[in-house]
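ok new one. same drill as before - C-alpha cells go in, u give me an amino acid for every spot. 143 of them this time. try not to just spam alanines like last time pls lmao
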C-alpha cells in the first residue's frame, strides 16, 4: 500500500479528518506564500522602528507629546519646529546639544534678545564705569 492509498483510506474513514487536512494545507500555503514572506521582510524596518519609538515614549522622562517632540528634535530643528515652534531651552523637551550652535543653552532659535535702552536724541550721556572697591583680596562691584 502506497502513501496516497493510505491517505485515501484514512480520508474515507473520517470526513472530518479530511476537512482538517485540507484546512491545514490551505493555511500552510497562505503562510508560506512568497508574497507574504516578501511583505514581512519589507515591513521589518517599520516594525522595528515602531517598537523603538514605543519603548522610547514609555521610558522617556517627558510625558507622551513632549517625548515625541524630543524624539523628533533629534532629526533637526526644522522638523521639531514643524511640530512646535522653538526655541527649546536646556532641560526642556526638544533641546539637544547638537542643535545648540553657540552653546548658550537655547536650541533651535536665537537666544533671548537683550533689548538696549532707548536712546534719546538729546545730548549724549556719559556712562560711568562702576566703582570698584577692595576689601582684602576680594573685589566687589557696585551695581
Amino acid at each position: 500500500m502506497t502513501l496516497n492509498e493510505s491517505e485515501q483510506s484514512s480520508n474515507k474513514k473520517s470526513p472530518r479528518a479530511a476537512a482538517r487536512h485540507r484546512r491545514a494545507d490551505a493555511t500552510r500555503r497562505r503562510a508560506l506564500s512568497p508574497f507574504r514572506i516578501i511583505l514581512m521582510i519589507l515591513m521589518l524596518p517599520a516594525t522595528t522602528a515602531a517598537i523603538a519609538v514605543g519603548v522610547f515614549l514609555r521610558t522617556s522622562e517627558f510625558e507622551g507629546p513632549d517625548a515625541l517632540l524630543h524624539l523628533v528634535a533629534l532629526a533637526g530643528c526644522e522638523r521639531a519646529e514643524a511640530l512646535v515652534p522653538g526655541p527649546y531651552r536646556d532641560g526642556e523637551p526638544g533641546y539637544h546639544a547638537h542643535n545648540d550652535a553657540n552653546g548658550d543653552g537655547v536650541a533651535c532659535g536665537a537666544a533671548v534678545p537683550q533689548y538696549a535702552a532707548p536712546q534719546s536724541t538729546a545730548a549724549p550721556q556719559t556712562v560711568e564705569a562702576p566703582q570698584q572697591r577692595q576689601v582684602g583680596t576680594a573685589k566687589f562691584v557696585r551695581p
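The two ends are 109 Å apart (CA to CA). and btw Residues 62-109 form one domain.
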